[in-house]
Write a structure and sequence with these properties.
Blueprint: E1 7-9, H1 18-28, E2 33-37, H2 38-42, E3 56-63, E4 66-73, H3 75-93, E5 97-101
Parallel strand pairs: 1-5, 2-5
Antiparallel strand pairs: 3-4
Length: 102
Amino acid sequence: MNKTVKIIVLNGEGSAGKSSIAKEMQKIAKKPFLHVQMDTFLEMMPDNYHDHPEGFQYQTIDDNGDPAVVIKSGPIGKRALRGMRCAMASMAEQGNNLISRP
């Protein structure tokens, strides 16, 4: 099996078009790319661990006059994110090309 893979990371603010760009990249790529979204992994977290010190806490701050959200991870949130990174590494180790939206 060819284990040379490509991983493309799309970074940007929410609603900037990262998902749309990923879908278009999948259409034009000569080889298949899997679109891996952090949101998919975050949705696995039980609702009561969002805005919870053990899971994820969200704080709106002022960023030079613009609102921004700071996300803090508690121990369960950190464990979930580590699992996400391990899952993505395993997918790449199996020869899958990835487009990721952190």
